[in-house]
TrEMBL record:
Coiled coil, from the record: none
Transmembrane feature ranges: none
A GO-annotated cellular component: plasma membrane
Any single GO BP term: phospholipid translocation
Single Gene Ontology MF annotation: ATPase-coupled intramembrane lipid transporter activity
Pfam families for the chain: Cation_ATPase (PF13246)
Name of the protein in its database record: Uncharacterized protein
């Protein structure tokens, strides 16, 4: 039998999705290793991944989109402990900002840890309509 233990991850930070960012990230710790794991829209993630998408990835994204599936790209990076400490201080300062620049400061700090990601993969899910949406569309067409 395999005596390896499953890894345990502790969430250090969550960078929430919003319509401007079109991505979300978690910064997690497992043992001595800290990772930033990010998922988001392919057009946003393309700029965050450390190299251009290869042909296979582009073909998968195209095929999934043509099938009407919602695609997400997943990337990750290892986070250096010294960088993490400075980043946490900067994020805390941004979150404590009380003027109109607060959101832009938070976004700028978040973007620093989400840069230079390594592509993990692409997901595709069917984004089904909520139960009442077809009925609502029908009512609007009849109006």
């Amino acid at each position: 039998p395999d005596a390896r233990e499953e890894p345990h991850f502790r969430v250090l930070h969550e960078l929430e999705f919003n319509s401007d960012r079109k991505r979300m990230s978690v910064i997690v710790k497992s043992g001595d290793e800290v990772l930033c794991v990010t998922k988001g829209a392919d057009n946003i993630m393309a700029d965050l991944i450390d190299r251009p998408f290869d042909i296979d990835t582009l073909e998968h994204l195209t095929r999934f989109s043509q099938q009407g599936l919602r695609t997400l790209v997943v990337g990750l990076r290892k986070v250096d402990p010294v960088f993490l400490k400075q980043w946490q201080n900067d994020m805390r300062a941004a979150q404590n900002t009380v003027d109109s620049s607060r959101e832009s400061k938070i976004a700028e700090v978040a973007a620093r840890i989400e840069a230079g990601l390594t592509l993990v993969g692409v997901t595709a899910v069917e984004d089904r309509l909520q139960d009442d949406v077809p009925r609502a569309i029908h009512i609007m067409k009849e109006a």
